[in-house]
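CATEGORY: protein folding

GOAL: derive structure tokens
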Amino acid sequence: MVIAECQVDYAGRLTAHLPMAKRLILVKADNSVSIHADDRAYKPLNWMSPPCTLVEREPEPDEAAATVDVDPRITRVWVVEGKNGDTLQISLGEVFHDSSHELGVDPGLQKDGVEAHLQALLAENPATFGRGYTLVQREYMTPIGPVDLLLRDDRGAYVAVEVKRRGEIDGVEQLTRYLELMNRDPLLGQVSGVFCAQQIKPQAKTLATDRGIACVTVDYDALRGLDHAEDRLF
């Protein structure tokens, strides 16, 4: 964890530049790197997802001449390279805090009663997701935490399901990270994803669809057997 003046330059699918300012830089045990301002809650200004590598070097003598916006206060440079060759260059000025902390294994998010019960009901009723679907395992562990349900579809392919009471963008991001790791496991093959909730916000649905993740909304009372067709007026 570093608090320092820094400027950040990203090069990859697009280019982006953050001018020199005081920021928080987090380098996590999974090798992810993220740069934060003192606002915007959890969302970083820029980041690099794992797998990636970080190399520290001294500023090159001709760097200031080659780059229009290089700040003369730069003392060292971190170059973070992602799996697709995209780079995040963090040029550090004055460092105010530099520390390392071992957090250990996280027990994961404790679900509320409704969400935990919803997950259990869906595990008992995998056909909710399609004819021929079967449960492989609840709380299937990945290197960064458990995915709620691991199923097989009617073709035998694996399907990872993330269950939420309310489906929001952070849930889609969570499932995206699980899928990225699971799809590297040769024993699983190609794993598809399903984002499941009682309500899914439009922004979350748009993001999930863009990433090839299916969205399923479920009726909690119907799954509990409280919604009987014969009791309805319409």
The chain has two domains: 2-98, 113-223. The helical segments are 63-66, 113-124, 169-182, 202-210, 220-223.
